[in-house]
Amino acid sequence: MLHTLSIGELRESLKSGQTSSVELTRHFLGRIERLNPALNALITLTAEQALAAAAAADVRRAAGEEHPLLGIPLIHKDIFCTDGVRTSCGSRMLDNFIAPYDATVVTRLKAAGAVMLGKANMDEFAMGSSNETSYYGPVKNPWDTTKVPGGSSGGSAAATAARLAPFATGTDTGGSIRQPAALTGVTGVKPTYGRVSRYGLIAFASSLDQAGVFAHSAADAAIVLRAMAGYDPRDSTSIDAPVPDYPAALEKPLTGLKIGLLREFFDGLEARNTALIHEALKIYRSLGAETVEVSLPHLPLSVPTYYVVAPAECSSNLSRFDGVRFGYRCEKPKDLLDLYTRSRGEGFGAEVKRRIMTGTYVLSAGYFDAYYLKAQKVRRLITDDFRAAFAQVDLLIGPTTPTPAFAIGAKINDPVTMYLNDIYTIGANLAGLPGLSLPCGYVDELPMGLQLIGPHFSEAKLLNAAHKFQQATDWHRQSPRGYE
Amino acid sequence: MTDWEVVIGLEIHAQLATKSKIFSGSATAYGAPPNTQASLVDLAYPGVLPVLNAEAVRMAVKFGLSIGATVARRSVFARKNYFYPDLPKGYQISQYELPVVKQGKIAVMLDDGAVKTIGITRAHLEEDAGKSLHEGLVNASGIDLNRAGTPLLEIVSEPDMRSAKEAVAYMKKIHTLVRYLEICDGNMQEGSFRCDANVSVRTRGSEKFGTRAEIKNLNSFRFVEKAIHYEVARQTELLESGGTVVQETRLYDSDKDETRSMRSKEDANDYRYFPDPDLLPVEIDEPFIDAVRATLPELPDDKAARFAREFNLSPYDAGVLCASRELGAYFEAVTAALSAAHAKLAANWVMGELSSALNRDNLDIKDSRVVPGQLSGLLTRIIDQTISGKIAKEVFEAMWSEGRSADAIIEAKGLKQITDAGAIEAVIDAVIAANPKQLADYRAGKDKLFGFFVGQVMKATEGKANPAQLNELLKNKLGGGPTEPV
Question: Which residue, A160, A382, B158, B219, shows the most beta carbons closer than 10 Å to its own?
């Protein structure tokens, strides 16, 4: 069963000639064809290009080339520009947009020999926590198709959980990798801000957006992240620092590791959820880690801070979608104003419009100081809280989400309740920290995620801690029924 | 009648002479077919990001150092948000609260020779927008994004100018400076150097400024002067008839020579500035500043002071010669071949014959048809009295059109000055003999007729008689000057 193998196992299998990239690609394309209609996880399939890329990967391997991802299939979130392939960002606005270039993440994975199967559904312009804001309709959670998979990278998460690909890319602006990873029972990594290039990633909130990965294990994620990460001269905010050998650091013993329990994350958390986290802590202690409680007093301000900063940036970032050069243009515009208002009014969905309006408001003369500037100050306080915490501990631990996956339609009309879904994930984005979610059990037969947050550039440590946990548990090996 | 005082501040936009745009690798050359110099970044395609061109920062720092300004160790790019088809991103990347250059000043010489110091509040980096094209299109507008992303240095003055003339003198001075620094080609027709003028009037002696109007996009010195004149007249008439000036943006129409309201403060955009999260703050350290300082040329004021001192020129002449780096260099090259005592002669020729020939043929000094070595060759012949100054003008014209050396032309045309006293005397004698009536009148007291005799001798010698010698000899021949009338 090729779809149950880890990336490492697939690589061995390809190396030994037991299988080929073309065979592997056919296998996953077959699964997508059979299983995706019920999930709506992929919105563009690139079967032909995938098979050509797979054949090319087989040729490269035959020629003696070697890369851990050579010939391994993947799915890209539809927020990454892919040359010659529609890049919709989940929006009617870009339904007709064929990107003329590859995002750096796409280029890097292509160069490594990974084979793109298609593009994953997502919340429109990555704005949403349930994948219900997509122009292409909601993604279903493979654990229970009446439930959401989380968002905004819901398609990538559901596709990974349903084993439609060994791994998928995603982006995380306020939890958009970690939250859906938690709700679909997969491992999701949001790297340090600046670790992975944002070039070609369609911007939502530039100071928060970060590309990352969904995989079946920390070990797989380590391989992928190593290929994705690195300095990119085309992204001024990317960091010019060497990329560590993440896979090589996985096996380090956790003896003496200091893990901080985020007190604020447990306030009001449901008992069953709290119990799962405490079970996880027991495992960490058995692995030699030390756990202490820490407090980040400003962390509860994360959500309001985020919902000022992110909309402010998005209101400006999305100005380029004006019906002039690309994307949706309204029928027969009367004049320039009509072209703008109808193209944008018809091209954007409700949640995107809500955030553009919020962002425009908080940047307006007379409100800027009270909202945007205040939010920036609180952002600094939250960052300082994290810094102080990391002076005491190596990693922070807590739940990824307050609840397991909720029903499709349950929260979509109540934005504030929806926004509170990201209460545990947003802090890391505001502070630019790396975070990781890994499965740690079930509530109501739905997966729950354990979240690890580390200091800047501590991805190796996060993956190491997640990997050791996964060696001691088998939550990450579970598959939803029907997708085994 | 109220005594009105005019208050003017200028915002000059100087296009920086970088090879590529400020945030993309596209070329900045002028005049390419529409949209051939627009990359995905300039077109604001989804997902693209700006990367700052370090050369633009270097040029801004160079400017800052040349006006004795503070170079900010940390400056920040902000987004200025508004919708317009020639603004692809829907925002312009500019510097807002933290510009790269702060608090400089520049000395400007006025017509009466007085020197006035104008404060420069700030200079900041920003990107230019594209252009909307309407010609030849029906029910549509074209957009050319070649210019989008071209680096601009916006130089904002204090409201220190008190007349249109001062404003023009200041603008010319900045124009000279940016070309000296080689950070802007100064081409105003192509829009590389243009300004917005903030104009207000107030009762003389008042501390408070009047309400100002901002006149946008003036791209010639003449337009700046005329637009300000019009605007000052408009505002004073308005105030004197009991009206009030409203704060607004106005456009100058050069065909009608008037300014027209574009938008009032009430309709003004709320630009929603905020720091651009795609760009890091610009951090500038001491070694960088030192390295830029090392590339500064001799600045116009320093050069003019040196010319005045070394060549004993008036401050005015020195200033004119230093109006451009090339003109100053030309003058120095001419002077180098002469002795310092003759620098004034060289200055007169460069500012006179040479400049008018250049103007007439609409040529730049670097394209002059007479190169410095040729001009100094001509001046040498004046100094050694081979030809007179008057003949020299004729020789210069021939040099200009034929491109030959002064000596070749003097030789070919036989223009060598007659300095042989005997030869001149012979001509004088013949002229006197031929004009007995004029001689009689002269001797009777009509001393103006002296010029008549000079003219006749010059005519007979085809202008080649040495003028000083001629004067001397003629005086003797005519009888020691006119006699007193009886």
Answer: A160
